[in-house]
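Quick look at the format.
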Amino acid sequence: MPDFCAAYGCSNRRGVESRARGITFHLFPKTRERRRKWELALRRKGFAAADRTVLCSEHFRSQDFDRTGQTVRLRDGVVPSIFNFPAHLQKSIAKRTTTTSRRAEDNLPTGWSQDAPRPDAGATGQRGQSTDHLYALPACPKAIKAKLEEASARVRKLQREKMNSLRREKRAKDNMQALLEELKEKNLINEELKDKLDCYSDLPVQLLSRQGVEYTKAQRDFALTLHLHGPQAYNYLRDTLHIHLPHPSSLQRWLE
């Protein structure tokens, strides 16, 4: 029977398709304290993990994994943190209460609601109260419009940055997939090793060619995995395609 990811709304299950996508599956911790942290992170009411209950790798950050060995492992003490919760499971932000606001609530007449409309300032003679909490908005309509336009400009900028980031990620995946396919066609790697390297599909290959730039953790893990399981493919990338992979002596030093 296939193992399905236990996260809310996640349909990933252990199989050829998920392995091809670089998705790995991880059992819940055996220790009671750590297992409880994972269960609480899922926010599923009454949920209790069984011995074979698993979570897929899409609910962990990239830095949560140790990919230096033959098997992708989670680092000690990590807790799943990436979920797509519906609105009713989102954590609500607690309302900030100050001494002044508590005192004001205590002095409200019985039956008075904070959400009820305030009496007309002219009728009560307390004109100052009608401007409570309006200091956050500009009084001038032009100033309000300017603030809205400024906020809209920030949103558009963030959207452009997001689209550019997605395009860069797609280019990186296409480049890496093409590279792995070339290695496989030349019989320098087998299907099993290709599956292992698929999890680095978003690694920008072009950055490996920039000498003098320090290797990132993902680049180090990719180099270690490829050299360990496919030394011929590693040499082909370094010597033939002139991709600036670390020298084998550097890999040995990293493993010490």
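Next, a different chain entirely:
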Amino acid sequence: MVKLRRRRSAAREQSDALVLPIIGRLKQEHPFWGYRRVWAYLSFVERLRINKKRVYRLLKENDLPVKGYEKLKARRASWQSKPRPDKPNKWWGVDLTKVITNEGWAYLVVVNDWFTKKILGAFCRKPQLRLRLARSDESGSLSAIS
């Protein structure tokens, strides 16, 4: 589909020819001014009655508009798999959580080995009661030591 454009009148072209040198001078002095600031200068300092859309059109037709900001995008690292240990007791993981009990909040810290995926130890602390959980045995259960 072809859009048909209306031809501008000769009076409009003459008026544009009078305003264009002023806009060109402003853009040379202030290259980072956009069409709104150019329009404001023409309207309030130069006292010209001119529409913002007209200023925008003149800037666009004469390749004078300011280039818009490019949205900054976070740089993404190429997809890499998670690191994996190659032997036991090389990397440990620690997790902390809190659980509500009848006596109040209990804070639980668990240490596990990333290679074997077994729990190495845990520590549970309640404000009224301290309970230390010792190293797990082969079955994976924890034995409690007060």
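The beta strands are 92-101, 104-113, 119-125, 130-133, 144-145.

See the schema section for token definitions.
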